[in-house]
């Protein structure tokens, strides 16, 4: 198997000096994203404004925390799905916890990409054009609202940074167990850096997912796109069924601060997870017809192969089937509402990995 680079060596690479000298100007003396422009030691608020075209305009809220000293540049992103409230609220809280006068480096915060999803309480997609705001990278300046917005995010938020932290959480229909992802693209240094940040973040369940970055489809989500540009990527999820529970919120805010501490951007001691539960890329169970679903296990449950996860009915309450796990593992997701349509995700099972296998290109 691939042997990860030691944690301390990974951080040494990520936090290496930016190359400033007495003869070189500070390239990040002022950092501008959209209408937010922050000098060293300042916080600025603004927006990335997306003009109307074939459909309506939108405005993506942005904050820039430009540290007093040089260091890594990190993007914190949430709200690709606008009803994953915990992740969105977590980033709004993080901004106020960052003191630019004591930070090394720059933090760009984009807490809500999918504003229409948030305001109209629409799950998964942007209701303006029915597209996924985590499935259209690198966007298209001449496309629909989602594509135009993501083209601007790609240029102004993703390309200028060293590290991308993409936060998610249980959508309105998702009862989700908190976990991080270790995204791997087959580049040892990049993969080890991502692993180090997943351990630093602090969630004890980590899903291992391999990407073929030569495949356009693998670059359509934010993580895959950022990896294809050579960025270090961390994706973490906490929250469920539209609620903002204090413990889920704490997991995400502490996780972000832990990563910034690990990158030596803030003064924060970090203890990486010593004994993570590594999970495979997960087994998804989808509905084969419309109706109602009723869970019989909770998020985070450990189940055996063949275990009953829930049952389905028609719209007048007649049972139409049972949903059984095809494998032993951890319930990382269980449907949190009765609404069910053909293809709807009912449950996701992550198989526990006794040993993390080497990277394997999908397909």
Global geometry: globular
* Amount of beta strand: 25-35%
- Note the main sheet: 9 strands, mixed
Number of strand segments: 20
Count the domains: 2
CATH topology of the largest domain: Aminopeptidase
CATH architecture of the largest domain: 3-Layer(aba) Sandwich
Percent range of helical residues: 10-25%
Task: Give the overall average pLDDT.
Answer: 94
**CATH classification, class level of the largest domain:** Alpha Beta
Radius of gyration: 21 Å
Structure overview:
The model is unreliable at 17-22 (pLDDT under 50). The protein has helices at residues 7-14, 85-97, 115-120, 145-158, 188-201, 222-228, 246-262; strands at 30-33, 36-39, 42-50, 58-66, 69-77, 104-110, 163-168, 174-176, 179-184, 205-210, 232-237, 277-279, 283-286, 291-295, 302-303, 308-313, 319-324, 329-335, 339-340, 345-350. A hairpin with a 2-residue loop joins β1 (30-33) and β2. It is built from 7 helices and 20 strands. α1 crosses α5 (188-201), α2 (85-97) crosses α7 (246-262) and α5 (188-201) packs across α7 (246-262). It has 2 domains: 7-17 and 26-277, Aminopeptidase (3-Layer(aba) Sandwich); 283-350, OB fold (Dihydrolipoamide Acetyltransferase, E2P), CATH 2.40.50.100. It is globular and about 70 Å long. It starts with 6 loop residues before the first helix and ends in a 13-residue tail after the last strand. It has a 9-stranded mixed beta sheet, with helices on both faces. With 363 residues, the chain is α+β, with helices and mostly antiparallel strands.
């Amino acid at each position: 198997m691939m042997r990860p680079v030691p944690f301390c060596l990974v951080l040494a690479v990520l936090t290496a000096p930016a190359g400033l000298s007495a003869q070189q100007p500070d390239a990040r003396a002022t950092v501008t994203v959209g209408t937010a422009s922050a000098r060293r030691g300042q916080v600025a608020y603004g927006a990335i404004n997306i003009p109307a075209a074939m459909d309506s305009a939108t405005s993506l809220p942005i904050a820039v925390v430009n540290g007093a000293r040089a260091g890594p540049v990190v993007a914190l992103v949430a709200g690709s799905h606008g009803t994953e409230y915990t992740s969105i609220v977590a980033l709004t809280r993080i901004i106020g916890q960052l003191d630019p006068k004591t930070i090394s480096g720059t933090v760009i915060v984009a807490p809500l990409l999918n504003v229409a999803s948030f305001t109209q309480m629409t799950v998964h997609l942007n209701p303006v054009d029915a597209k996924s705001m985590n499935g259209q990278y690198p966007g298209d300046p001449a496309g629909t609202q989602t594509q135009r917005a993501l083209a601007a995010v790609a240029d102004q938020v993703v390309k200028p940074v060293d590290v991308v932290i993409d936060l998610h959480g249980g959508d309105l229909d998702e009862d989700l167990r908190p976990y991080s992802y270790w995204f791997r693209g087959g580049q040892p240094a990049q993969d080890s850096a991502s692993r180090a940040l997943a351990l630093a973040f602090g969630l004890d369940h980590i899903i291992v997912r391999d990407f073929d970055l030569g495949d356009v489809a693998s670059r359509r989500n934010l993580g895959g796109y950022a990896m294809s540009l050579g960025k270090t990527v961390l994706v973490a999820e906490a929250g469920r069924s539209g609620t903002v529970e204090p413990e889920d919120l704490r997991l995400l805010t502490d996780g972000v601060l832990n990563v910034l501490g690990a990158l030596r951007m803030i003064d924060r001691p970090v203890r990486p997870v010593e004994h993570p539960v590594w999970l495979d890329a997960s087994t998804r169970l989808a509905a084969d017809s419309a109706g109602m679903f009723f869970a019989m296990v909770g998020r985070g449950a450990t189940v055996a192969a063949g275990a009953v996860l829930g049952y389905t009915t028609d719209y007048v309450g007649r049972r139409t089937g049972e949903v059984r796990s095809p494998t032993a593992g951890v319930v990382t997701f269980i449907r949190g509402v009765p609404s069910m349509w053909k293809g709807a995700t009912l449950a996701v099972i992550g198989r526990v990995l006794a040993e993390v296998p080497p990277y394997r290109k999908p397909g």
